[in-house]
Amino acid sequence: MMERLLYLAGYLVIFGIIIFLKRRLKTSEHYDEMQLQIRADAYKYAYGTTVVLLAGLILMVVIDSEAVPSYILSGVLLIILLAGVLVFGVYCIRHDSFFFIGQDWRRYFGLCIVVDAINLFTLVQNTIKLFTKNNETLELQGLIANIIVETGIVTFFSVICVMILSKMISNKKDAEV
Amino acid sequence: MKNLKLKSARAAKDLSQDDLAKLCDVSRQTISAIEKGDYNPTIKLCIAICKALDKTLDDLFWDE
Fold first, then answer.
1. N or C, where is chain B less crowded by C-beta within 10 Å?
2. Whole-prediction pTM value?
3. CA–CA distance, A168 with A161 (Å, rounded to integer)
4. How high is the pLDDT of residue A135?
5. CB contact under 8 A, B32 and A177
């Protein structure tokens, strides 16, 4: 119990530090009026997606509490969160409101590729471990949980990368001289 | 509805969408959307565009 509270406290402290630093280090981040409007719509759709998926999961657990084992539940919850963020990201990228004015998309794209590659490597490793080793029940559950989370993260960053690249290519074609 | 007046005023000044966007501190896609008629700018942005192109609001945004 004490350990769990410490983990929660640690998470809140880290989250608080990130928020504090974000406010202190004011960047020249600037979205124009059309982008702000689009981002507002994107937040709406992302919120709706997350709520609908969470409601579905809650319903499933209420109807049959054994339907989703606990080691899978944490992975599913993360995937629901990622789904909401993905809806936001895809909508913004499609409508040219993901990057603020003057932001270099290449740096962000590069970072996504690196994160994707690292998680893909771990995903492949864990999948191989799942099928090749004789795993104890707890280890097996941990592996399955990891695989679910990593699949979600890899899918998320892959979709974002593909969307960014295709949008930048189509923007280049559309750009008028 | 497409804003052809804006497009021709921009072309007359030999400015690309990107150039005009930088002058008005917006993204190129916003200028493109305004010209295509996909986005209605606020009065603040309309004024900024008029100043950048040396035109009046009637010249660029009045629907005749």
1. C
2. 0.85
3. 11
4. 65
5. no
